[in-house]
User: Fold these one by one.
Assistant:
Number 1:
Amino acid sequence: MLADALLEGLNPEQQEAVQTTEGPLLVLAGAGSGKTRVLTNRVAWLIGVCGIAPEAILAVTFTNKAAGEMKARVEKALGPDARGVWLSTFHSSCVRILRAEIGHLGRSRGFVIYDEDDSLALVREALRRHGQDPKEEARRLRWRIDQWKNAGLLPAQAAERAEDLESEESAEVYATYQRLLAEANALDFGDLLLLTVELFERFPAVLRHYQERWQYVMVDEYQDTNRVQYRLVNQLAAAHRNLCVVGDPNQSIYRWRGADVRNILDFERDFPDAKVVALHRNYRSTQRILSGAGAVVENNPGRPPKRMVTDRGDGDRIVVYAARDDRDEAQFVVRGILDAVRERGHSYGQCAVFYRTNAQSRTIEEELLKYDVPYVVVGGVRFYERAEVKDALSYLRLIVNPADGAAARRIVNRPARGIGKTTLERAEAIAAERGLPLLEAFRAIANEESGRAGTAVRGFVTLLDSLEAEVREALPADAIARVLDRSGYLRALEAEGTPESEARVENLKELLLGAEDFAAANAGEESGRSPLEQFLDQVALVSDLDSAELRDDRVSLMTVHSAKGLEFPIVYVVGLEEGVLPHQASTKDPRAVEEERRLCYVAMTRAMERLALTWAHERRRYGSRSFGTPSRFLAEIPAALVERLGAPDWEAEARDDRPAYDYSYDQSRGSRSGGGSEEGGVTKGMRVRHPIFGYGSVLEVIGSGPGQALRIRFDRAGVKKIIVRYANLELG
DNA sequence: CCTCGGTGATTTTTT
DNA sequence: ATCACCGAGG
């Protein structure tokens, strides 16, 4: 009976994927092919039909949201029987394992999890200890360390592979960074995975325990796994070899974060006996949308993807709108949405706007506001990364783990209590010298110094001590409330009385509410760790106040990356220009362009009924004006699928090898806007390209009309004075 | 120690 | 345009 229910409504391929429980299985799940349903039904099948113990199943996803969704669906099918399944993200799975086993690596189980900010601060500190200036280096190096970790390289291995002096030095700082992390009893995101893999490698008996436990392993979004995740999955599945991975190479969009699409492409090589099931029936989009998206992604080299088919009918053509500028583009989008809602019975919640970069949301938002269209921007600054929220949490972190230097550094002078840079630096020097945690260094100052600084530090240390006594065993919400009150943080914020400070107070209230919810949801769970500790784990690993983002009565705005996994009846993808999508930074590297193309594919395949792609001739970018040409991806969509709106026939020109529009400043054409007017004229700060000197910035505009000259600082050739009329300059 | 103003850079970001 | 960071001055 349950068996029938679990197969009902599934197509033959989906059924096969659900029923294939033994041995390695690769499910190639194209966009909208009902992948989540297959995964959840497969879990339910294993338990409810095959009689496998829930405890023997591990299913990992990338996001909490995906994990939560699957968990809910499995529980719906099976009831409470499903409880024992480990269904969580890579990172939380690793946290659970490490909380139990990290002792083997000589580390304490009470570790805290550092986010990007904390980790950046620590990289700075590491650089300082190497006598280097942390200014410029820090961001880049943090990135590099992250990449090393994604690739599964510990400092020693990174050093081995260093081919130049700079890499060697970086690897040394990496080693110091790891040491500082250990001293702070902290792990960064990358460590969670890397140390788990290391643990399993060095302690086979520990690995064996988990291998035996998990007879069935499933991985979602396998195309986005990085090398460490790959190793982890292979370690865990090695004994039973019941490994099911699900993914779509065409939706691999996190290469820049260390994801390695080879993981999925080589699955059949890794497991020669693997069964492969391809889900190519699409349940989301109309045929035109599907064919258009497929035609784009087919331009990537490699095995051409299997064409997706749908039974949703042909649908409308894909609209391609050539806008005059970004405002016009936004207007087009908003008018279209208003039309869909007023004339065609759609709700705002069924409409979405996707863009390549967050900065592009501004123009769209302005226009939506103008017409009173309700919207929500998904993503952007994350809740738990807001300064005030991090401040409050840092108090808790420091109370739970006095070794947490990042937390101490953060709150020692927040609210302002007269402990400035000088004092902080002295504390850090003491910490480095005597090998103490930062907080202990502050204690030393409090005990040893009598001056103004000493008094201030004493105040801080006393505050912390009394807070610790009050709060350590408290419930998270109480702890936060007390911290905000006793530290004077809330009072200081309220005293400011600015709109910003009010918003911060609001955020803190939201944090309190979130903490209360957490306490309600997690009452009595897990052993050994205080509610406060559990709460801190949770906020470190949850990207946002989870849900409540997509609302039925609001238009959704988000980056294409955030859109992955979602679907909307009506979709606008804006900014389809060279330099935007594909992004400027990606155009030099063919592999990066391929990823941009997949990004375009992901964006298009989110649409169920109506899809519009827009580009703008002219766009405000970094404050100044820039001119754009239609994205190469637009030309890859067969004309028969497209309805072209807006400005003139760009396609004929785009087929040419030249840019679609020639905005050269030569004598025959003058400036684009007809010369003289400010509209298209050259202004200070503008970026231009000279046929001989290359790119440069305009320092000064001298005169006007035919005699107009420019002083330009060229990136390579220095400052030169150029007569516009003769120079054949291009904007760029 | 705090605040203001100049400087530079500026993709995407599940955890 | 905007934001984060740094250095000079209050």
Number 2:
Amino acid sequence: MIKKTETSGWRQARRRSARDAIVEAAWALVREEGLAGLSLRDLARRAGISPPTVYAYFDSKNAIYDAMFGAAAAQFAGRMAEPYACEDPRELLAAGARRFAAFCTSDLERYQLLFQRCVPGFEPSPQSYAPALRALGGAREVLALNGITDARYLDLWTALITGLVSQQVSNDPGGGRWTALIEESVAMFLAHCQPAAARPSAPGPAWPEGALS
Amino acid sequence: MIKKTETSGWRQARRRSARDAIVEAAWALVREEGLAGLSLRDLARRAGISPPTVYAYFDSKNAIYDAMFGAAAAQFAGRMAEPYACEDPRELLAAGARRFAAFCTSDLERYQLLFQRCVPGFEPSPQSYAPALRALGGAREVLALNGITDARYLDLWTALITGLVSQQVSNDPGGGRWTALIEESVAMFLAHCQPAAARPSAPGPAWPEGALS
DNA sequence: GTCTATAGCTGGATAGAC
DNA sequence: GTCTATCCAGCTATAGAC
């Protein structure tokens, strides 16, 4: 699979853009037909190529799902890492939760592929999965800003927020019955998990530069 | 589809038991192959009949999924409605959550069909869905025993518990990383949502007989 | 790299005898 | 109701010319 690395400049760039075009067509198709409705025939037609040509860029159908997953995970990490308008640790926590919910509810299929994992034989590769882990690390940092470092509380936080989002997309798609509970969830969570010392506007401990990236 | 109702006694009973046998075979197959791996050929072989005979009992493949869903929902409602050893409202709430988690984690495929909804073209019929709604009503009753009647808090409770269970089965199947947080979740939830009046051992208001059934 | 053509398989569902 | 036999549609993936 290794080619001459010297000629790789614009050639690889072209190949990459062709791959990206196929992945984008796959997303368009999936948003119309659902995650399970992705077929190579339809994908090829949508992308303006013939079905076998798809195999010039992807080894299998699952490789396409993996590329889609990777793109979605990158979007996720990028969105969560954008700068926040506030600095207050508590507001940062709430803003992150709101952002996560907005990201999930704005694209149902993307949410399903990233977080529901219900494509029959597919599991994301470690490379595609990495950006999602990076974003989770961001949550850990923000919790630390709030004085919360217990790993158990990180688990509790993720369960709480993903639970809200899951109920939202499953039982009230397009509405706000559960996402409207985010502020209250933050209050409930902090009241229970935040140590008394960190309760007022006491500044948190120093943390590494670029911790949120 | 309507037959002579006078001859329906043992004849319908035989038909019911044959249906049940097929549904049981379907569950056995699904536990081996996954929810998406249910095919009529394999199902027929497992049930000891020929593929077309399946259509003597079910109109389509989705009708089989629906029967499976109905059976699972009935198990769920039955399990949640079994008598509880304690009477303290707070302990009742925690016991219900533990029971729910145990029910979900003890059978992954059943959990996926009931609560994850990721079978491509399938949606449960209202009849099959009804028992699940009954069980949700039970949660509302127990929350009322704890002095919590705000519908928003019922939503928050379901999000919190389903979030814990979802993280558990997705990220630590067979373990207890998230289910171990149930007690703490109950404490957190009640501290935030329970009115101060109901905090001590004050008895809740009277409620209808058989409210939990 | 891209195409046409097609292999090879599996799936749900049906026909018709018994 | 149950069977054998089969239809037909859809899929992924490959072969081989260009």
